Amino acid sequence: MSSQNASQKVVSVDEQFGGGERETVDEDGFTVVAETPAFQATVQEETQAKVDANHPDGIADASQERIPGVTLAQEERIKAREAELERISAQAELGEQEGRARRARDVASERSAAWTRAFERRAASVDQSLSPDNDPREMLSQDELGAVNEQAGRLAGELDGWSRAAISRRLAQAVRDGADIPSAVLDVKDDLEAAPGQIIPIDRVGDVDRGEVSVEGTVVQLWDAPDPAVEQVGLIEDESGKTKFTSWVRSNPKIVEEGERVQIRGASTSWYQGRVSIAVTGWTTMLFPDREAWWE
Predict the structure, then answer these.
(1) What pLDDT digit, counting tens, does each position of 197-206 carry?
(2) Beta carbons within 8 Å of 138's beta carbon, 6+ residues apart
(3) How many Å apart are CA 210 and CA 267, to the nearest integer?
(4) Calpha distance 16→116 (Å, rounded)
């Protein structure tokens, strides 16, 4: 009776640990093993397994449709880990690129601002009104400043490439020099329209005191080229007037058609028998506002 109780105590201990064999006795008195013993890894073995799993040579290839030698649960963990590593790597690379681009833009902006102020200070040695440190708007009355800002906003919508602030400074300087608001507006508009790179009315081409202008108009007539060196010759017209234009073969110009609207930037000017004309050179840019992109 006591041996039977002892045997029951041993069995209960085995069940408590869950790691040994559960044995039974058949009708002939032979011991029968009910299931295979469960083996548990030691701490050292578990540590080594983690080291091996993180070694580059020991990481399974997650690019395959199925990873051989692992269960579905293990495969999901491996692929999830690979995806997370790729995401972290992509974010790090993108952040580094954006950081470099942002720093480059900041540096370029600072240099551009510095160069602009340096140029304005050199120009101020000739004309004090161009100094960045001299803002004539500060010397106007409240009413004058309001009128100047209103007219500057209107002119900024009419003149390409000029900001409202730049125009208001010029208007304010004209008012300080004694002009009333209407006269200042007309004078400043004339000056800015004739500035380099600004498209001007064709009837003002002869008023520009430099050898290069930009105009926009419609080609109203084309003539036969009088010389093999001439690509095209004709008349271009806008609301203010018209003038003769010539394009040279060596400049490799774009071909225009009668009735077509064209913008000619950086054309050279010349005079013949008291009349001004323009010529398309290798430095000239020709744009066609009404053309489709594929046609250009």
Answers:
(1) 778 889 888 8
(2) none
(3) 11
(4) 85
